[in-house]
Amino acid sequence: MSIEQWDLELQQELQDNILKFWSEHSIDHVNEGFYGAIEQPMKLIPHAHKGLVLNTRILWTFAAAYRALQVPLYLEIADRAYQYLTEYFLDQTYGGFFWMVDYQGRPSNDKKQIYGQAFAIYALSEYYLATKHQAALDLSITTYHLLEKHSYDSVYKGYVEALSRDWKETDHLSLSRKDLNEKKSMNTHLHILEAYTNLYRVWSSPILTTSLTELIQVTMKHIIDSHQACFNLFFDEAWNVKGEHISYGHDIEGSWLLVEAAEVLGDHELLIEVKQTAVAMAAAVLETGVDNDGGIWNEANPNGVTDTNKDWWPQAEAVVGFFNAYQLTGEQKFKQAAWRSWEFIQKYLIDRTYGEWYWGVSSDGTPLPHGPKVSAWKCPYHNSRACLEMLERLKHLTLVDSPQTSH
């Protein structure tokens, strides 16, 4: 497969399938914003609650797509997402953003889930990059300060999972029903890292420099299991590990997000250390997490694979994560792994009938019957970002023609 052909397939998938689906099917013309749920195959749930993660990821996706492609429709949808976020999700009393609103925009879960606040920072900073809308940047910075004031743990470092609406301690910490109710998690820290990295692109304040540097160091010291080159997932406040699960999708996603963070930060010594760790993590996923068909499994524990399904988002992250490892090392096995991940997506995950991607497939490649097309968690960010990242990386690779160049 030539770079030119891969580039063409990525462009077509991004614009003619993913963004087209969300442009045509997700917009709620009755109650503003975007629908909260569409079940398989295309059953609209018009009164479904609307999640902060869904809305911020739509905002990030269409802002990033507009920044890259300059298609006016993408800006219109980004504007819509920004307006809905600031009108309905933004807590005008205590600051920050509600976790969930009902279909008419009334708060239905008002806790301050830090994962969601991070995605607001991520999306607002991307919207600023696309539009230079100062109010979006100001709100992103304000949200950063709220996290540092209320969620940051000055004793053990890192960030607490969740707080009440008025930023007080809460016992309701878990992100979803499948997560442990612990003080700290890999997942939240990974996406704070992602958010602070994007904010740093437009606001390289000394205090953010300190926050981002420490966050990378905390990830390297406490979250990554150096013996297995994978993430631990849950922790108490003092970073004692809870549970033994391995999430292959998060490992391969985190491998490239860590490199991106260190590159944007510009700390040369830290970048060298991070690159070594990222390659080790990608190699571990390639060795233990990839099936014969090129797809990566969902989860494992020290005894082996525990979830043989292959959800959509780990496959998207695998394309970027493996290609990032190829760019760092020049090793063809990583380039081949990235391409096989893309082939798996093309063969099994893209819904050729209704558009977008299936939630996931079982071990034999059959689409999972109950996975939604749109939900609080089924959003356009993983797959659209994979396409955007790869388009940029392939372009850079073509121009420089060197596997040692990292994006």
Structure description:
Helices cover 55% and strands 9% of the residues. The protein is mainly α and 407 residues long. The chain has a single domain (3-400), classed as Glycosyltransferase (Alpha/alpha barrel), CATH 1.50.10.10. It has a three-stranded antiparallel sheet with strand order 3-4-5. A three-stranded antiparallel sheet has the order 8-11-12. Strands 13-14-15 form a three-stranded antiparallel sheet. β14 and β15 (304-307) form a beta hairpin. α2 packs antiparallel against α3 (72-89), α7 (206-223) runs antiparallel to α8 (248-265) and α8 (248-265) runs antiparallel to α9. The radius of gyration is 20 Å and the shape is globular. The chain starts with a helix and ends in a 7-residue tail after the last helix.
In short:
55% of the residues lie in helices and 9% in strands. It is mostly helical. The longest helix has 23 residues, at 3-25.
List SSEs in N-to-C order.
HEEEHHEEEHHEEHHEEEEEHHEEEHHEH
Q: How many independent structural domains?
A: 1
Named at the architecture level, the CATH assignment is Alpha/alpha barrel
The major β-sheet equals: 3 strands, antiparallel
What brief labels describe this structure?
mainly alpha, 17 strands, 407 residues, disordered C terminus, three-stranded antiparallel β-sheet, 12 helices, Glycosyltransferase
